[in-house]
């Protein structure tokens, strides 16, 4: 009503994803007898087709889930270790690893999808991948966000001589300039997904598909080996948890960097935000200060040991951080990596949240890294490979400098929140290091100010950068922005009222009645589907 999206509710399951066709693919699996884990793999595979610039089987990711039959939270980590042959000492700055074969981290997404289905799914892989295969083979018409991405990003990759011969035929054979309704067909990807459905994940991890991937990477000067692929096995981990206003928020533990979000919320729990004017000076000043302070802690103690992490989240340390937030003095510090970045971080990630009628709930965040990842398309396969080694820290002198075989710190934070031991919310977003900022902002809108889930996602958000620099959607009152500047924030409004630079959030809540409530971010092509 009144120009707003309606609340989408269901008693039989819910899929929220960054594209309507992907959400429908997941909902169809639920409707045909699959569960949330089948639907997550189906949705993720469909996203590979309909937003190929964001994620795909050549990427990496993490999943947080509530397994109803076991009454517990589980984490599936499908971010493989840094390749054993990664020549880390060859690089001195992130930009060295933005594109090309040396930027490619070992693909983990396919292994993650298949592990979800094998461990908890109810459907065979051929049924799970059927929707994605049909979309790739038949093609689909581009919507607005896809048009923007192809026209802004695809031609940048196509201009790189080593990458163009396989990239251009795969993505730009049907159009030079994308337009709404233009059909993108990916027959090579359809064949690859069909082969995987028949042969399983081993087709990539040690099989014929893996041989094609390694051969192509090595032809471009890459150093990844089949041993790296075979070693890319998803790992089940125990969740990292922290309380906030009666909720227990669960997410992957380090090397995942999501603990920054928990630090932010733990700091903010010491302030009665709900009594402040919503999106007013006091509200936003406290939130931005807490975010910047938590980012500094995360960077200074990246990938902490369990003992160090317990210390960082301890009441004593949190009280120290709260005192710093409350003192009113400007806070200056990094938000990305140990040293300042060269500019905007072009991360392209996607997140999906799914619930089923059996009580399972899952949130998956997965990515290719940058737009179209490394830009490396393996000829004849339709697979675009990630550039996650761009997120490795190669800065000389950094205490977090990456070594071959290391766990790769990952700025993702798929979350499941519980209340009184029962799941109530799945929430995740893309956005690179902004993920750790924008999810905290949305939680404050939803929990502290009582906004409905869709309204909390639609509320204006900010992206904090190194130093004191902040960009905020221009729906914030200009007088509030001016007052924040007077408090020491180098804050500026985006030209847009809605921008993907502050993420593309998807969420599912479970209401006290037991109904599922879905919410999808209009900053991208987010949509909700039900079985």
Automatic annotation (TrEMBL):
- Using the UniProt annotation, give all residue ranges assigned to the region (Disordered): 328-349
Source organism's superkingdom?
A: Bacteria
| Record InterPro entries | GGT_bact (IPR051792), GGT_lsub (IPR043138), GGT_ssub_C (IPR043137), Ntn_hydrolases_N (IPR029055)
> Do the record's keywords include Transport?
no
Q: Which UniProt keywords apply?
A: Hydrolase, Transferase, Zymogen
Q: Name one GO molecular function term.
A: hydrolase activity
Gene3D superfamilies in the cross-refs: 1.10.246.130, 3.60.20.40
Check the record and name the SUPFAM superfamilies matching this protein.
Answer: N-terminal nucleophile aminohydrolases (Ntn hydrolases)
Which protein family is named in the record?
Belongs to the gamma-glutamyltransferase family.
The name this protein goes by in its record? Gamma-glutamyltranspeptidase
Q: Which organism is it from?
A: Phreatobacter aquaticus
């Amino acid at each position: 009503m009144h120009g707003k999206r309606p609340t989408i509710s269901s008693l039989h399951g819910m899929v929220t994803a960054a594209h309507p066709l992907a959400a429908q693919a997941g909902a169809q699996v639920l409707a045909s007898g699959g569960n949330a884990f089948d639907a997550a793999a189906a949705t993720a595979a469909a996203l590979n087709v309909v937003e190929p610039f964001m994620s795909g089987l050549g990427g990496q990711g993490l999943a947080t889930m509530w397994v109803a039959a076991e009454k517990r939270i589980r984490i599936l980590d499908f971010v493989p270790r840094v390749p054993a042959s990664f020549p880390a000492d060859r690089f001195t700055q992130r930009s060295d690893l933005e594109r090309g074969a040396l930027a490619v981290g070992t693909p983990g997404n396919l292994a993650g999808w298949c592990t979800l289905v094998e461990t908890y799914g109810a459907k065979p892989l051929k049924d799970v991948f059927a929707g994605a295969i049909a979309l790739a083979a038949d093609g689909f018409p581009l919507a607005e966000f896809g048009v923007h991405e192809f026209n802004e990003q695809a031609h940048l990759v196509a201009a790189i001589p080593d990458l163009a011969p396989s990239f251009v035929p795969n993505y730009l054979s049907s159009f030079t300039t994308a337009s709404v309704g233009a059909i993108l067909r990916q027959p090579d990807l359809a064949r690859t997904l069909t082969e995987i459905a028949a042969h399983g994940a081993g087709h990539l991890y040690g099989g014929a598909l893996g041989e094609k991937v390694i051969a192509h990477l090595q032809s471009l000067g890459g150093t990844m080996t089949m041993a790296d692929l075979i070693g890319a096995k998803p790992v089940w981990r125990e969740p990292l948890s922290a309380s906030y206003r009666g909720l227990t928020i669960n997410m992957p533990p380090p090397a995942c960097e999501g603990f920054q979000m928990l630090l932010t919320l733990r700091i903010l729990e010491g302030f009665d935000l709900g009594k402040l004017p919503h999106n007013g000076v006091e509200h936003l000043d406290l939130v931005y200060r807490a975010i910047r302070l938590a980012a500094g802690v995360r960077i200074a103690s990246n990938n902490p040991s369990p003992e160090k992490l317990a210390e960082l989240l301890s009441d004593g340390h949190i009280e120290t951080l709260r005192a710093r937030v409350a003192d009113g003095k400007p806070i200056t510090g990094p938000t990305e990596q140990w040293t300042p970045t060269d500019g905007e971080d072009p991360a392209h990630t996607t997140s999906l949240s799914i619930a089923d009628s059996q009580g399972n709930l899952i949130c998956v965040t997965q990515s290719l890294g940058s737009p179209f990842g490394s830009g490396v398309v393996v000829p004849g396969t339709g697979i675009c490979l990630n550039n996650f080694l761009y997120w490795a820290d190669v800065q000389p002198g950094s205490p977090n400098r990456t070594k071959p075989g290391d766990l790769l710190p990952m700025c993702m934070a798929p979350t499941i929140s519980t209340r009184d031991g029962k799941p109530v919310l799945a929430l995740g977003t893309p956005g690179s290091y902004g993920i750790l900022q924008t999810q905290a902002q949305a939680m404050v809108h939803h929990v502290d100010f009582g906004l409905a889930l869709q309204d909390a996602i639609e509320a204006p958000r900010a992206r904090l950068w190194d130093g004191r620099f902040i960009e905020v959607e221009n729906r914030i009152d200009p007088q509030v922005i001016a007052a924040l500047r007077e408090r020491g924030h180098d804050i500026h409004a985006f030209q847009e009222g809605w921008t993907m630079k502050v993420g593309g959030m998807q969420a599912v809540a479970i209401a006290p009645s037991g109904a599922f409530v879905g919410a999808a971010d209009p900053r991208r092509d987010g949509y909700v589907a039900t079985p």
